[in-house]
Design brief:
Transmembrane segments: 7-23, 43-66
Structural class: mainly alpha
Number of domains: 1
Order of helices and strands: HHHH
Oligomer: single chain
Number of helices: 4
Keywords: Membrane, Transmembrane, Transmembrane helix
Amino acid sequence: MKAFFKIYGVTVVIALIYFEIFSRHSHDGFFANLGSAVVWPAVMFPALGRLIGGVLMLVVVTAILLHGRRR
């Protein structure tokens, strides 16, 4: 698992350099580009971002429904 985080960290640094120099958002601040670099798969592949958003929405709705049943 440590290797996964190391590899992902390296890809975040590469994405950060790309976003800072070559991206259409290169005029944005460093931390804005860092935030985009952390979630770079969703930025580079918009369909993946929609999938992640859909999964998160399902998790939140399920948590709300399950929390409501406990009361």
